[in-house]
Amino acid sequence: MVPTFAVDDGFRSRLTLNRRESAGLVATGASPLHQLKRTRIYKMTVPADILADRYSGLARLVERLHRRLLDVVKVELGVLEISHISPVQALLLTAIDGEVSVRDLTRRAYHLGSSISYNLKKLTEHGYVSQAPSPHDKRSVHVSLTEKGVELGDRLRARDLLLAQRIFEGEQGASDLQVALGVLRQLEQRWYEHVEAGGAV
Length: 201
Hints:
Blueprint (H helix, E strand, L loop, with lengths): L3 E3 L12 H9 L4 H7 L6 E3 H32 L7 H8 L5 E2 H8 L3 H13 L3 E5 L7 E5 L1 H21 L2 H27 L5
Antiparallel strand pairs: 1-2, 3-5, 4-5
């Protein structure tokens, strides 16, 4: 007999929501996964080999999405006629909010230490970022956006909004975005817990 596993609410292969329930996901502001648990979805089980294939496919999809996002940012930089910074540097710029330490920015932007140092150096050279020693800890460096950096960040976010409106148009699109965000956040949390547990299953 092939072993089976119950599929978690956040990872169902199909999410069937009527229009009233879909609107509720956006209107209430509640957790999409909490809302999904209250939605009438048929219970189902999936054979272990199929579950493994789907999980592997999801993990590979996350990896491909990151590369595709960099392609999208590269196109957006081209539209804005900016060629002197890379997509990675543009994403790093949009992660800077106010004054932040390099250490906190590394955690927030999920960059490697050497990578973030290089990219911050390039953003600083082009006048988008300023760096200064922390007044409380001289070993720590704080970074913030210059006026030029704030302007570019605003232009990139405006382009993001246009793309989001085109991809997730209308009520159903907004609902789909909310569900996708909830599922990916749950996946991130489960992976984090697995790492913190040292791989214990």
